[in-house]
Specification:
The chain is α+β, with helices and mostly antiparallel strands and 280 residues long. It is built from eight helices and eleven strands. Bound molecules: 2-oxoglutaric acid.
């Protein structure tokens, strides 16, 4: 433990310096994804995200778009049982399976909110479609309070079925997104914050539950504290897109024709990821 603390003392300044540069806006950044009323909506969403680290957009996707996303989701997770997470199905490579996913991930208002937050270029760095089936209540992995140890990073979660506030929702501690953690607190056991939440019952009033009708969108900074919840109160169908501004890229596959048909700056939200791959 002492060795870990010494290592943390050495690494923390480096970690904070990297995060300082990561958070610095790019003065040349001028991406706009929408205008008029949509831009006003994006500005309101951005203000909430900036203040709280999370903005909830209840029932954002509706009608045909929602139905297409639900059908694409059902197709993508079918038989994809997850070995690491009991009673769940997961698919991490779904953009090639159905065009509805890329349309949702490049929604102009949602991208405009993210652009206003990052104030620098960003792209899809990782994504995941997940179905949680009812399960035993338990605290493990991402189902404990944690931050994602990647500094500032925006996640956009779309709920594809109705999800109750006492269901298998994700919980987010609002206003926890600006904290810089020490290197040690970002590693292993130290990155789990269940004890902190127990020791501060007053935090309860700051918890936002990511729940609502099908089509609800939550945009949150994964540097803030958040926790999934496993329980027997129904399931959760969700797709999460992670937008990265400088690092933590993961390989992502897309259909070439869909990406080549995109206008700038939408196209760059795909191609800026140095690990993106276009397939025919
Ligand atoms: O799915 C959940 O409840 C947790 C999600 C999470 O930890 C994340 O998106 O970083």
């Amino acid at each position: 433990m002492i060795a870990q603390q010494i290592w943390s003392l050495i690494k923390t300044p480096e970690f904070r310096l990297k995060e300082y540069f990561h958070r610095r806006p790019d003065p040349k950044f001028d991406w706009h994804f929408c205008s008029g009323e949509d831009a006003t909506k994006a500005q309101e969403g951005y203000q909430k995200l900036e203040e709280d680290g999370i903005v909830m957009l209840p029932g954002y996707f509706q009608g045909t778009m929602l139905q297409e996303l639900q059908a694409a989701f059902d197709k993508s997770v079918a038989d994809q049982w997850c070995k690491l997470n009991p009673n769940s199905l997961q698919c991490d490579e779904f953009f090639v399976k159905d065009p509805a996913f890329l349309r949702a991930a490049l929604d102009p208002v949602l991208l405009d909110i993210i652009g206003r937050y990052y104030k620098k270029k960003f792209a899809l760095g990782r994504s995941c479609a997940q179905r949680l089936l009812p399960a035993e209540t338990g605290r493990y992995g991402s189902y404990q309070w944690h931050h994602d140890t990647r500094g500032r990073q925006i996640h956009l979660m779309v709920l594809l079925r109705d999800l109750a506030e006492d269901g298998q929702r994700m919980s987010y501690l609002s206003k926890s997104h600006q904290t810089y953690y020490s290197y040690l607190r970002g590693r292993g056991q130290g990155s789990r914050f269940d004890t902190d939440l127990r020791e501060h019952p007053e935090y309860k009033d700051r918890i936002v539950e990511v729940a609502g009708p099908a089509g609800t969108v939550a945009i949150f900074d994964a540097n803030g504290l958040h926790s999934g919840n496993r329980n027997n109160n129904g399931g959760r169908d969700q797709v999460t897109f992670c937008y990265v501004s400088v690092r933590h890229w993961k390989p992502q596959k897309f259909r070439r024709a869909e990406v080549e048909a995109l206008q700038e700056p939408f196209k760059q939200v795909v191609t800026l990821n140095p690990k993106h791959e276009l397939v025919d």
